[in-house]
Design brief:
The structure is a single chain. This protein has one domain. 63% of the residues lie in helices and 0% in strands. The protein is built from nine helices and no strands. The longest helix is centred in the first third of the chain and has 22 residues, at 26-47. The chain is globular. This is Sugar phosphate isomerase.
Length: 164
């Protein structure tokens, strides 16, 4: 994976887990973070599939979390520098993947062979489901998922079937 995607993946996963936190202790938080990171990684690889795409993100920056904060009602909650590395489209696509297991499976299948294992994204046990209850809840993430859902479906070569 191109190095320029690492800060985008880290920041976007952090935004998701802060916006839809794990209910519980340290284990729930860690499991929620893993699921968010896997969804964001798949979304980022689909959104920026070539080294040139990743390089452009590194040069221009992904855009930041401002619009996402507005959609979720979290305006003004933070001005940390990492928030400028949040990619709105990647966050939206990740929300789609987290709230629709079938879409997540199709997205992982669309990645090049050898792209990695995404077990926690694709196969959650009851502990995973409890840890990411808010992050995977279709009604809660739908405002974020709807932002760029159609472009994800187009990228995957599908019609306009709702993801959430």
């Amino acid at each position: 994976m191109p190095a320029h995607l690492s800060p985008v993946i880290a920041a976007t996963a952090q935004w998701l887990t802060r916006s839809f936190p794990a209910p519980g202790g340290a284990l729930s938080t860690a499991l929620c973070e893993i699921q968010a990171r896997q969804a964001v990684t798949v979304a980022a690889r689909l959104r920026h599939p070539t080294p040139v795409d990743a390089e452009l993100v590194g040069l221009a920056g992904p855009g930041g979390a401002t619009r996402l904060d507005g959609v979720t009602g979290a305006e003004g909650l933070g001005s940390e520098p990492w928030r400028s590395w949040v990619d709105e489209v990647v966050a939206s696509w990740a929300a789609c993947l987290l709230s629709d297991a079938g879409l997540a499976a199709r997205a992982v299948a669309a990645l090049p062979p050898g792209s990695g294992a995404y077990h926690r994204l694709l196969f959650q046990d009851p502990t995973d489901r409890r840890a990411a209850a808010l992050l995977r809840h279709p009604d809660l993430v739908s405002p974020v998922a709807r932002l760029h859902e159609q472009s994800l479906l187009a990228r995957l070569g599908h019609g306009s079937t709702p993801a959430a």
